[in-house]
């Protein structure tokens, strides 16, 4: 493994740690304010910092390019969709559950990444996916089997949308010179614009917000938002979407640790078994996909050439005359 690969992996791992801790932070922040207000401030604070950084870098890096504006806007919409599902989801389920369910992104990303491409995934990958689904069923069951709650279903939807976002980042940035800071700035501005209208009615609540909630909002904006967006974009440009998803897949481990260690989350025997199945299934699925990607495709063996039929020699006029006599 090269030094550049290790550096990229460490950045993605740091993103996973930050995102793993974001579920408990978001849950407590939404209890003090509201989901829409948390989402708006998360983006708005990030956008302000990004705007200052981009303005300071204008002399050396130049203004936004058309590619950065168009692709950043699209990624801003998909990232906003991920966060709105995640934030509403964690508000209605436990932080540990949210972090574990979102880890299904690990097995969903390879499926979407290979969509429209030649070569399918082996049966073992789908067995790993089934293991993850069984784990989710046990995780949300609590003390007995039951249907998943609203928050659990929202986190499942967030896992699907996030997988699509990771693949989209890879495909939109592949082979193009796109600066991560500028791309992230566009995404944060788009998110702030999208969430301002629905959050406007709650802005007066900020006057009564205590210091602890402000600290949580700043952490969500600067670390879980700005740093994570910037680092993810920078790293995915230097690795494959699937490898990025593998390293980001340690996120549920951190979510579980933070939720149980610092929050009120508790795991029953069934929930603990479900968590183990999810983690095992995601890493198994990633290992299968990684091995599949590392195996060079077998070139088709060309069929042997079909010999041409022999051409009959022309017969002379004398021979023809003799045959008729």
What profile does the largest beta sheet have?
Answer: none
Give me the count of strands: 0
Q: Percentage of helical residues?
A: over 70%
User: How does the helix and strand content classify structurally?
Assistant: mainly alpha
Shape annotation: globular
Question: Cα-atom Rg, whole angstroms?
Answer: 27 Å
Count up the helices.
Answer: 14
Mean pLDDT, rounded to whole units? 80
Write the layout of secondary structure elements.
Layout: H1 3-32, H2 35-56, H3 58-61, H4 66-91, H5 95-101, H6 105-113, H7 123-139, H8 150-173, H9 180-199, H10 211-236, H11 241-248, H12 251-262, H13 269-294, H14 317-324
Structure described in brief:
The protein is mainly α and 325 residues long.
Describe the structure.
The chain has 325 residues and is an all-alpha fold. 74% of the residues lie in helices and 0% in strands. The protein has 14 helices and no strands. Helix 1 (3-32) packs across helix 5 (95-101), helix 1 packs antiparallel against helix 10 (211-236) and helix 4 (66-91) runs antiparallel to helix 8 (150-173). The longest helix has 30 residues, at 3-32. The chain is globular.
Keywords:
74% helix, mainly alpha, disordered C terminus, 325 residues, 14 helices
């Amino acid at each position: 493994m090269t030094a550049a690969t290790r550096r990229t992996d460490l950045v993605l791992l740091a993103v996973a740690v930050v995102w793993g801790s974001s579920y408990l932070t978001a849950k407590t922040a939404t209890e003090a304010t509201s989901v829409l207000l948390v989402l708006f401030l998360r983006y708005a604070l990030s956008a302000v910092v990004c705007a200052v950084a981009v303005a300071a870098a204008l002399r050396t890096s130049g203004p936004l390019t058309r590619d950065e504006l168009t692709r950043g806007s699209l990624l801003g919409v998909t990232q906003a969709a991920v966060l709105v599902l995640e934030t509403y989801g964690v508000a209605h389920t436990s932080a540990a559950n949210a972090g574990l369910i979102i880890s299904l992104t690990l097995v969903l990303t390879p499926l979407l990444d290979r969509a429209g491409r030649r070569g399918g995934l082996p049966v073992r990958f789908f067995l790993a996916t089934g293991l993850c689904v069984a784990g989710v069923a046990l995780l949300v069951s609590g003390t007995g089997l039951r249907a998943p709650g609203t928050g659990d279903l929202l986190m499942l939807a967030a896992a699907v949308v996030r997988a699509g976002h990771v693949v989209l980042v890879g495909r939109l940035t592949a082979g193009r010179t796109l600066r991560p800071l500028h791309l992230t700035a566009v995404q944060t501005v788009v998110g702030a614009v999208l969430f301002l209208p629905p959050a406007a009615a709650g802005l007066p609540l900020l006057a009564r917000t205590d210091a602890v909630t402000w600290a949580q909002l700043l952490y969500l904006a600067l670390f879980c938002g700005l740093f994570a967006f910037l680092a993810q974009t920078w790293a995915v440009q230097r690795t494959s979407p699937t490898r990025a998803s593998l390293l980001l897949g340690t996120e549920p481990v951190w979510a579980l640790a933070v939720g149980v260690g610092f929050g009120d989350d508790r795991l029953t025997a069934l929930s603990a078994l479900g968590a183990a199945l999810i983690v095992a299934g995601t890493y198994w699925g990633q290992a299968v996909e990684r091995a599949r990607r590392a195996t060079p495709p077998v070139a088709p063996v060309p069929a042997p050439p079909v010999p041409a039929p022999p051409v009959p020699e022309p017969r002379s006029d004398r021979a023809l005359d003799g045959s008729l006599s």
